[in-house]
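ARCHIVE CARD
Drawer: 12
Card no.: 0347
Subject: one protein chain, sequence and derived structure
Cross-reference: see card 0346
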Amino acid sequence: MRIAVVGTGYVGLVTGTCFSEMGVHVTCVDVDDRKIEALKQGIIPIYEPGLATLVTKNMKSGRLHFTTRLEEVLNEVNIVFIAVGTPPDEDGSADLRYVLDVAKTIGEHMSHYLVVVTKSTVPVGTAQKVKAVIEQALSQRGVNCEFDVASNPEFLKEGNAVKDFMSPDRVVVGVESERTRKLMARLYKPFMIVSDRLIFTDIPSAEMIKYAANSMLATRISFMNDIANLCELVGADVNMVRKGIGSDTRIGKKFLYAGCGYGGSCFPKDVKALIKTAADHGYPMRVLQAVEDVNADQKLVLYHKIVKYYGGDETQLKGKVVALWGLSFKPETDDMREAPSLVLIDLLTKAGVTVKVYDPVAMDECRRRVGDNVTYAHDMYDAVDGADALLLVTEWKEFRIPNVERLHSLMRGRLILDGRNILDADELHQAGFEYHCIGH
């Protein structure tokens, strides 16, 4: 089987590479010449554990190829996956211009039966728009060429994307013909050897499943952050609350961790898009609007805590040195889209604070986004050298058991704010630090 995957971001590159690992001949397509040339040389544009090794391996095997010319490979493939970006518009809706541009190219150049699959996260009704664009392009050519559309949303976690794709907990495929169902079942068969987790639905349901899943996870996070803030006011411990409610099998333990807000390329964008989709149909998503509002406020929590420490007067921050541990929105990725660190950097620098930052993999991404507005440390201890306060923003493993004596000798101040609740409060208190976390 031969397929094309259009878009070489997190979704497209992981999708194409993992299919090639299972023996499928894959051509990954992108309009970015420099990105494609870099990929041909084995240079990966994103940080994703295990991905670089698989890309190199499957390029050498001849199963994985890269090009900027989709039209040149359309006659060789059975399936085309559209995995381009769908950035949010100002009103929160998903921008489909890149998806529909790919559909137009397919319609202008296809010459045999194809299944066109939306892999990008797209709102309900997108597959039908893709179908209409292709039909229009074929009509303008005067060509009668059969094709089908399908929806195959991704459920990959950044930092664990390769494992998620190779061992999925479910694969959702929305189809409208038996021919498409059989072809997609054949494509995914190698991933279903241990357990058949392939779920076929109608196309609108498949498109909705992706948004509903991410919105539910975002809801759990914002709910726990709301509970954490209340815990601080009433004297409860959110970690104990989490264990208590998480032991209820109806609730479960996952995504119940309080923190300084969620970020990334999925949750913020997808919550906004679902709210906008509902509004377009005259229905207010009241719960999701609250989820979004709580998350926006939660990204300010660490800033409010440091201001409170200095007497509630923001002017007292001027001239202070604050260290940030963690820049990416989550561990095991360099992705800083919608990251809480960006909000904190903006607030602190505007208050006249010298901000020293360290992240195991996201330093280059921070330089691209923030430039020289912060000081870039060589390691976690260089970041705290001379600092009045330390803010832990991303729960990287190397931050979990710091050398407390070294922190004490390097830091000028004694304030540690833990935005992910991963440090040992007793150890830090005994060492003379004033330690605050979320929800305790």
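Annotation on reverse: The CA atoms of residues 20 and 61 lie 9 Å apart. The longest helix spans residues 203-234.
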